[in-house]
Amino acid sequence: MTDRDASVVIVATEEDLTADMVAAHLLGGPVALLRLDPGRMRERPLVTGRFAAGRWHTVLTSGRVSVTLDERCAVYWRKPTRPDALARAEERWRADENTTALLGLLRAHPLKVWIDDPTVVAASLHKPTQLATAARNGFTVPDTLFTSDPQAARAFIAAHRDKVVVKALTQRHTTFIPTTRIHLSDDLTGIAGTLHYLQALVEDRLFDARVTVVDDRVFAAAITTDGALDWRAVPLEAARYRAIDPPAEIARACVEHVRDLGLAYAALDFVVTSAGWTYLETNCVGEFGWIESATGLPISAQIARTLCVGPARRGTIGTCASARL
Amino acid sequence: MPGPLILGRRAPVPTRAAPALPRHHYDPDLCVNVTPGGTLLIHAVDSGTYTGTQEPRGYKKDD
């Protein structure tokens, strides 16, 4: 059995190649590594948590690796299988039971670092919270309207000279809904009965920016398309990605924003114009694999490093537009 | 009541799927996926192709 001083638990599906990117940095290193998917739990790893004498003691075991949940243990909770994604009711129950139990045990222990507690993520992913936090952090935030009132939508679009976009808050139960323009000439009756998310269009974009924050490190990439309003709708090969150094005040505000949301990791989206950077949203468990692959930004290495050594002391901020850490 | 306006804005489902991954399996000891030859899968493919914000059939994951 191995019970080294430091350990990392990765919570992710077995098919998750982005989790593989982080795990690969930890292979053969000084920390014990264990990975599991509570949504598709197998016979290993074994998980045992015992409450006695007023405290919890929890051990996860897989083969020769044994991990005790304590201040020496870091957790990377990515995207385990969602119970509702499973076909059979019994599978969904078991996935829900395992996920609930594991989450409860993790929350009951002091950990070195947790990237990130999904209960904190759940509270942080709401756009009204994000936009208000972003404004407090000093970002420029577009005028925004949530409404199920067609007349309120019409007035908002008119006030912004017919330059407004409509965005989806969620993407489940549907194929992809990109951000699109909404005009006064559109039939707005379809807004009734559904809260729609409208935002003033950010005009004259030079490029989009995806800023990935890991603890106190900032990894920024410019995304350039042929004028697309939503780069997510553009095929990977039709967009151009390059690592950039954001303005220092933007980098600082990104780190503060992620910390203010209670997170250690997040990916922020901006539109960059000649007037500066305009904040759009924060993706609390945002993908990073493709942008690391396209730019060489060492995001997975920084996640692994943070898991190994723990969070940095407050007050330090680093930007990284190169492949070096 | 009409259907939600925004559902009329759905993008067409991409007709081209991501290329198939080479043969591989998850190794619970290494905690990563490996090819039959023992190479890490992420070193055997362009991982960027498989780690984007879109699933191949257009069903979106979180960003």
Key attributes of the depicted protein:
heterodimer, A: 325 residues, alpha+beta, six-stranded mixed beta sheet, 8 helices, 27% helix, globular, B: 63 residues, little secondary structure, two-stranded antiparallel sheet, 1 helix, 10% strand
Task: Kindly describe this structure.
The complex is a heterodimer of chains A (325) and B (63). Chain A is of the alpha+beta class and 325 residues long. Chain A is 27% helix and 29% strand. In chain A, strands 12, 13, 14, 15, 16 and 17 form a six-stranded mixed beta sheet that branches. Chain A has a four-stranded parallel beta sheet with strand order 2-1-6-7, with helices on one face. In chain A, strand 12 (205-214) and strand 13 (217-224) form a beta hairpin. In chain B, strands 1-2 form a two-stranded antiparallel sheet. Chain B is built from one helix and two strands; from the N terminus they run E-E-H. The chains are: A alpha+beta (325), B little secondary structure (63). Chains A and B meet through helix 1, strand 2 and helix 7 of A and helix 1 of B.
Layout: helices, strands, pairs:
The complex is a heterodimer of chains A (about 325) and B (about 60).
Chain A: E1 7-11, H1 17-26, E2 32-36, E3 46-52, E4 55-62, E5 65-68, E6 73-77, H2 89-107, E7 113-115, H3 118-124, H4 127-136, E8 144-147, H5 150-159, E9 164-167, E10 180-182, E11 196-200, E12 205-214, E13 217-224, E14 240-244, H6 248-260, E15 265-273, E16 276-283, H7 289-295, H8 299-309, E17 318-319
Parallel strand pairs in A: 1-2, 1-6, 6-7, 13-17
Antiparallel strand pairs in A: 3-4, 4-5, 8-11, 9-10, 9-11, 12-13, 12-15, 13-14, 15-16
Chain B: E1 25-27, E2 32-34, H1 41-44
Antiparallel strand pairs in B: 1-2
